[in-house]
Specification:
Layout: H1 4-19, E1 24-26, E2 33-37, E3 40-51, E4 59-65, E5 73-82, H2 87-99, E6 103-107, E7 117-124, H3 130-157
Antiparallel strand pairs: 1-3, 2-3, 3-4, 4-5, 5-7, 6-7
Helix pairs in contact: 2-3
Length: 158
């Protein structure tokens, strides 16, 4: 039987060998990502952000320090939904993200440009569901873009 530490070590080694080997690390100072836990806002300080290459071209990999001691780090795979976020775009993405337990964040990869993008995140717990997460995020982006196109066509008709 494997323990949580063994699972985390397997995940870390898998990420280093397979996913992050060709990735570009983005070096900036980033604000923490916050999440609500039992109605209290907790912050996850960002350790590293990687821009993935190859068949994961549009993906971002985020490593955060956990606010609890175990596990020490948490890993998120993210995909950019919109380069310029707004409340309207968030409301378009909210239903699908709730249904599939995805997180939506408005986050700036390049803080010096003052452009806040809309990202969809999924936390990675083990290496076995990594391909499922990739397919889910790719599918979400396709559905989101189609909804955005429908909205654009609706506006044109008015």
């Amino acid at each position: 039987m494997t323990t949580d530490n063994d699972t985390m070590e397997n995940l870390q080694s898998y990420l280093k060998k397979e996913i992050l080997k060709d990735a570009i690390i983005l070096k900036n100072k980033y604000p923490p990502i916050s999440e609500k836990v039992n109605g209290i806002s907790k912050s996850l300080r960002i350790k590293n952000i990687y821009k993935l290459k190859g068949n994961l071209n549009n993906f971002i990999f985020i490593t955060t320090k956990n606010y609890t001691k175990n596990p020490r780090y948490r890993y998120f795979l993210a995909i950019l939904l919109a380069t310029q976020s707004s409340d309207l775009l968030v409301s378009l993405a909210k239903e699908f993200s709730k249904k599939n337990r995805l997180k939506l964040i408005q986050f700036s990869l390049y803080p010096q440009h003052f452009r806040v993008g809309l990202f969809s995140l999924k936390e990675i717990h083990n290496k076995n569901n990594f391909s499922e997460v990739i397919d889910l995020l790719k599918g979400f982006r396709i559905i989101y873009r189609k909804d955005l196109e429908k909205l654009g066509k609706l506006i044109e008709r008015v």
